[in-house]
């Protein structure tokens, strides 16, 4: 179909639509309207008055709606402020209560330890203290290392202007560091002051990282107590090599330092669920020889049998 003088000329689009759009940004309809206005002149009479009246009415109506919306927003603002202030006060009150309970628990724990020391024999008490230190239920002191990792600088998108961290420390990164330290001889480990035990979990919850139930933030300090060559042994692991590569490629922070006189706190909340009394050797019966022992050398108690006929 060809264009005729009677029909308006339609816009022809090239295969490259974006190029054509930037080359001719004005739609032909606007050009036709401008030509018609230049030919006929501005509207006069009732048509012009009605157009101006309609525009004025529209502006007044829009302004009225904006005024109502603003008034409602300002009327609801005091209620929102009061609710926010009440929530803040409630959070602070609960934090104060939690801190008081933690202090009370620490005092009771110290009282229990004192009573235990007074009632247990020296060898048994010493063995119990060693077991608590190994399981993370007691404070420990000693020399070791501190592994510090932190998020890299934020990457700014030149198109959108938004920032995004492409070098963010993840929960599995802290897991790898802790496992590497355990494997190289660490005896006690804490992450930002949160002591690790055999049942500790390091997991992500949204944008936060939780050690057990305590949130930790960047920079992360993984502190470990262990042998004198713990730093050298950790530096030779694949985990340390991986983080050095991440530093070079993404700008993450990674540093390993020797530390003296480290103090790691006890883990919080070691609930006792099961307890067993240590087995005592059963004295041998007359004429039966020595008691049988298990593979570890611990005497295996025998169960007495009832005489026949009972």
Globular, elongated, flat, extended or rod-shaped: what is the shape?
A: elongated
Briefly note the CATH topology name of the domain at 142-157 and 164-264: Alpha-Beta Plaits
| Helix and strand sequence | HHHHEEEHEEEEEEHHE
Biggest sheet: strand arrangement = 5-4-9-1-10
Arithmetic mean of pLDDT: 78
Region (Disordered): 265-310
InterPro entries: DUF881 (IPR010273)
Pfam family, one: DUF881
Transmembrane segments: 49-70
In short:
The chain has seven helices and ten strands. The protein is α+β, with helices and mostly antiparallel strands and about 300 residues long.
3D architecture notes:
- It is built from seven helices and ten strands.
- The strands form three sheets. The chain has a five-stranded antiparallel beta sheet.
- Residues 1-5 and 286-310 have low confidence and may be disordered.
- It starts with 16 loop residues before the first helix and ends in a 46-residue tail after the last strand.
- It has a domain at 142-157 and 164-264: Protein of unknown function DUF881 (Alpha-Beta Plaits, 2-Layer Sandwich).
- It is elongated and about 120 Å long.
- By secondary structure, the protein is α+β, with helices and mostly antiparallel strands.
């Amino acid at each position: 179909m060809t264009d005729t003088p009677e029909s308006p000329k339609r816009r022809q689009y090239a295969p490259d639509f974006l190029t054509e759009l930037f080359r001719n940004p004005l739609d032909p309809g606007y050009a036709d309207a401008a030509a018609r206005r230049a030919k006929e002149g501005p509207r006069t009479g009732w048509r012009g008055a009605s157009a101006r009246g309609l525009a004025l009415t529209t502006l007044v109506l829009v302004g009225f709606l904006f005024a109502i919306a603003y008034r409602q927003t300002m009327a609801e603002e005091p209620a929102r402020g009061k609710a926010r202030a009440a929530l803040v006060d409630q959070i602070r009150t609960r934090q104060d209560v939690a801190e008081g309970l933690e202090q009370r628990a620490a005092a009771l724990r110290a009282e229990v330890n004192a009573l235990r020391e007074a009632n247990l024999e020296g060898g048994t008490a010493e063995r119990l203290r060693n077991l608590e230190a190994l399981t993370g239920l007691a404070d420990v002191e000693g020399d070791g290392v501190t592994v510090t990792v932190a998020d890299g600088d934020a990457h700014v998108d030149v198109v959108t202007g938004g920032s995004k961290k492409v070098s963010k420390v993840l929960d599995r990164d802290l897991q790898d560091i802790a496992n590497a330290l355990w494997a190289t001889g660490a005896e006690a480990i804490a992450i930002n002051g949160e002591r690790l035990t055999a049942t500790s979990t390091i997991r992500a919850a949204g944008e936060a990282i939780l050690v057990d139930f305590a949130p930790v933030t960047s920079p992360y300090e993984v502190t470990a107590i262990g042998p004198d060559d713990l730093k050298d042994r950790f530096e030779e692991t694949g985990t340390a090599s991986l983080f050095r590569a991440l530093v070079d490629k993404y700008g993450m922070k990674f540093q390993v330092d020797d530390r003296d006189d480290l103090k790691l706190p006890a883990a919080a909340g070691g609930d006792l669920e099961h307890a067993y009394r240590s087995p005592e050797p059963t004295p041998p019966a007359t004429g039966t020889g020595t008691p049988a022992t298990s593979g570890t050398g611990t005497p295996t108690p025998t169960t007495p049998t009832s005489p026949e006929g009972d």
